Amino acid sequence: MIKAFIFDLDGVITDTAHLHFKAWKWLASEKFGIVIDENMHEQLKGLSRMDSLEKILAIHHLNQKYTVKEKVELTTTKNLYYRKLISDITPRDILPGIVELLEEIKGSSYKLALASASKNAIAILKSLDLFQSFDFIADAAIVKKGKPAPDIYLLAAKGLSVAPENCIGIEDAVSGIQSIKHAHMFAVGVGDKRLLHEADYVVSKTEALTLPNMMQAWNNSLV
Ligand code: G16
Ligand code: MG
């Protein structure tokens, strides 16, 4: 039986992905003199700040060039730039259909949690006026392994006191869908069906993300 919904933030509730990418592009050009390819955009989605940096450096064989301390400084620099980009976020930046969906979920007595990899998640939720809507917000800063590991989704389920098999997780990134599946939850993807083929159910955009559709898909998975 489904008792809870666990949402990703970036790409599901609001579209901050292009701002993360803009910040990485700036850092790569400023600090390493390289141009990051548009193809990287999809691959960086859902990854933690440090995992994103490691991925960018790896492609350009630069991992060994920087010490751990320097890498921490680089991620801090990226975050300062990113924070400027998100400073004017308002409830108008909530993706279509999400406010109604969150209200419907709450009104139907399901529990609601957030499982974002972002350490800026609380600040963003507050800017969107959605902070109060969640029963639990999993803290990305305390999970050992980022997505695709299951840690953040398991932490969210634990925070709600709901067993993972009674949760539906909602994600836009491949790494996020893998995180949900590794946590043994039902995975709903938002985006390209071919890309998110590991999900149990996929909608192309947030408008199509409705409570009856998700419950129907979950029911269908039982037969
Ligand atoms: C988001 C983004 C990632 C970003 C990560 C960490 O995850 O998709 O691109 O690297 O958070 O963000 P921050 O640097 O703000 O801690 P999610 O899980 O909300 O999709
Ligand atoms: Mg996401």
Automatic annotation (TrEMBL):
Which controlled-vocabulary keywords does the entry list? Carbohydrate metabolism, Isomerase, Magnesium, Metal-binding, Phosphoprotein
Q: Where does substrate bind?
A: 8-10, 24, 44-49, 52, 78, 116-120, 147
According to its UniProt record, this protein's enzyme class is isomerase
What EC identifiers does the entry list?
Answer: 5.4.2.6
Q: Show the catalytic activity.
A: beta-D-glucose 1-phosphate = beta-D-glucose 6-phosphate
Q: How is the cofactor bound?
A: Binds 2 magnesium ions per subunit.
InterPro entries under this entry? B-phosphoglucomutase_hydrolase (IPR010976), Beta-PGM (IPR010972), Beta-PGM-like (IPR051600), HAD-like_sf (IPR036412), HAD-SF_hydro_IA (IPR006439), HAD_sf (IPR023214), PGP-like_dom2 (IPR023198)
Q: Where is this site: Important for catalytic activity and assists the phosphoryl transfer reaction to Asp8 by balancing charge and orienting the reacting groups?
A: 116, 147
Instruction: Give the annotated active site.
Output: 8 (nucleophile), 10 (proton donor/acceptor)
Record GO biological process: carbohydrate metabolic process
Phosphoprotein as UniProt keyword: yes
Which range is the signal sequence, renumbered to this chain? none
Citing just one GO molecular function, the answer is: beta-phosphoglucomutase activity
* Residues the record lists as binding Mg(2+): 8, 10, 171-172
One Pfam family hit: Hydrolase
**Does the keyword field hold Metal-binding?**
yes
Cofactors per UniProt? Mg(2+)
Stated family: Belongs to the HAD-like hydrolase superfamily. CbbY/CbbZ/Gph/YieH family.
The protein here is known as: Beta-phosphoglucomutase
